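FAD-binding domain-containing protein structure dump, as promised
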Amino acid sequence: MGFLGFIKGFSSVYRAKPRIRVYPSFCQYGYCHIQCRTFSHFKDHDDSVLPVLIVGAGPVGLVLSILLTKLGCDKKRSTVSCKTYELGWVKCSVLEKSKSFSHHPQAHFINNRSMEVFRKLDGLAEEIQRSQPPVDLWRKFVYCTSLTGPVLGSVDHMQPQDFEKVVSPVSVAHFSQYKLIGLLLKKLEDLYFHNCKPEGLNDELFRGGELLMGHECVKINATGQSVNVTASHLKEGKYTERNISCNILVGTDGAGSTIRKLAGIELRGEKDLQKLVSVHFLSRDLGQYLLKERPGMLFFIFNTEAIGVLVAHDLMQGEFVLQMPFYPPQQSLDDFSFETCKHLILKLVGQELSDIDVIDIKPWVMHAEVAEKFVSCDNRIILAGDAAHRFPPAGGFGMNTGIQDAHNLAWKIAALVKGIAPSSILHTYETERRPIAIFNTALSVQNFRAAMAVPATLGLDPSVANSVHQTITDGVGSILPSGLQRAILDGIFTIGRAQLSEFLLNEKNLLGSSRLAKLRRLFEEGKSLQLQFPAEDLGFRYLEGALIPDSDSVGAQEPPTGCRKDYIPSSDPGSRLPHMNVRMLSNSSSEACISTLDLLPGDKVEFLLFIAPLEKSYHLAVAALKVAEEFKVSVKVCILWPPETVKGAEARSKTALAPWENYIDVAEANKSSNSSSWWSMCQMTDKGAILVRPDEHIAWRAKSGLDDDPILEMKSVFSAILKV
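structure tokens r here:
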């Protein structure tokens, strides 16, 4: 299916009958008198109603809870429990149905944009970089007949520019999900979140800052002012229900989201692309062998006895996950016992190992679906992460897209809670993020198809295997006894794997030589499974939402090609702010460089206005500061000086912007002679201006100056962005 056909699969909106009750209210959230700018009913609200309840404590839910808790928790109050803050932080609690966190590695690739988000979480990105395996141990995908046998080819997914930090201040990472969750929990603990277990809870109200383990959401009921959540938990051997009222309910509870189902929100896309079994195991001997002989992240293994993909989560610790195709009902999970899995692992390794320790065996189904809507019930129920979109793992877009969902959503929730914006600001989350999810779904499917091109080239077309399985299950084979169905399926797969015999797959065999040559071309042309997509990871852009498009912006993002493309910096509204190293002129250590992305804080809802040190630009900045005060939103002005004209910069800005003090003078860091200046990189003149949102995406720009009344322009800008 082409990209346009794939997108059309998401276009129809299914209006399902909701399984929750909604009671409409005429003046919800106090918006009857917009001109009074009293948007939020959160101020002086009933203490029995929690502002934000997050259901699901995976990476997305935990990141969202950290972002919300940090918003308002500035350094002046960092030694005091957030529970004593005066309207500073966004009060939230997290429900998790599991009693403990899984140690199954699951997701492991963290892209550039997610690492940029993590840089704002009190050094999380740096902790990941210190803790992850060295990059040379995971930069390659290896294709082989066994882990100790002939190598069919390998692909290095890291390029020199990936380490130069030209387009981003931080590199990608390889770090298992359960380890990431451990670090996120520590960040929450540092923010005075409490990990609460059912047996230690009484009936007191939730004040925010609680992580409630072992609580499963079983019912939601949306009223005019709140969402009432019923959570079931086991206490003293009996299931007990607890009622929690919240203003905003965010479902980050994974691909099988209970919140999505209770809200009656349907998924659109392709179901059941592939069924697999995931085997988590440890083997230090295997890890040491691969460290020495053929280090890599993924190993695609094809031989006559077994086929599988081995994910090396940590070669030094010997931690792996083996993914194998699974064909129920002819096969069942019972066919993958611990002993059977050990036997299959040895077949794929190609030699004996004495220390294989199988930890866990899980079946899972690969889907490519996006929720028909991300926001429902008058902006009170919101989906994020896998609850909103389910991708093939190819390219690692699942967790990364979810983390960026949370980053987009956090400042908007904070703006509502703090009375800066009405609840309609939350709908821009869906307007912006759903098209990105649809695009990333298409890209993930395309990358998955590229992965399947390798076995197809070797004579093992997975689509043929799936067709055979479907014929046996649903077609003429369905009338046969189950045992005979199983025997037929096993026989056909054995014949198929014979294509991988050493007799056939070698350079002396005419057919084998042809297949190997075609496989080499596949790798050389970048048409196999890819790991990095810089143009998509950093270059995604919101076309509408909490921003003001301009006529000079490029059109919609081109359809995905499945090949790696370089990121090109852009100042188009909706784009991520380009990264450039700058020097803070007000800092005594004037040689210290920071990224332009670092100029936005992670602890407050603040916009950033970039200008050059020109008279008209200073006038625009003063207008922005005045209007921001009227709109009760924080704006910082960044005056970006050319490196050769910084003398007297601070005095000039102080005079031009008086009495306002919320500004910073920076200069472009010394660059090579062929490097672009800030304004040329942004394809603008220095007479222009760029307004950046708290999530580091550009909300508005004037490419070459502003001829209109700056006060009126800024009022129009903030009204459009904040939806007031």
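The first strand starts at residue 49 and ends at 55.
lmk if u need the other ones
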